[in-house]
């Protein structure tokens, strides 16, 4: 819907600099009000209100999705059900799984997902993931100096400024 409104000229997306400014101002305002910035685009009023729902996705915890288009994950394998309600119900009536696709992730893909997803959360990533190559160690140093990440014990955690470029950081590190 937003895309259609943009195409018709009803609304516009902010320029990159304006979007960054709005993101940082919002983060500062909400954090001063007691909100925890726990994922790139999610805040909670205190630790006890942080959503547990998405945590399993960020951490590769096994989950089972039930219903049309639902996704599941276990032991490096991800699969998804058919989107159509009619096809989903027909498969169940025949006693067959309504799965329409699957992928088995390699150890390298799992590592990259861990990196990508970890940089989108305040949990961050284990520093050993970034010490796995000389190139990554060098890039980590640059990210620390640019205030995109900080070290906390054995973790590398994105700063609010780092959330702005989390996807780019992950792509550069991959």
Features:
174 residues, alpha+beta, Arc Repressor Mutant, subunit A, 3 domains, three-stranded antiparallel sheet, 44% helix, globular
Structure description:
By secondary structure, the chain is an alpha+beta fold. It folds into 3 domains: 36 residues, no CATH class; 51 residues, no CATH class; 65 residues, Arc Repressor Mutant, subunit A, CATH 1.10.10. It has 9 helices and 8 strands. The protein has a 3-stranded antiparallel β-sheet with strand order 3-4-5, with no helix packed on it. Strands 6-8-7 form a 3-stranded antiparallel β-sheet. It has a two-stranded antiparallel sheet with strand order 1-2. A hairpin with a 2-residue loop joins strand 1 and strand 2. The radius of gyration is 20 Å and the shape is globular. The model has no long low-confidence stretch (mean pLDDT 91).
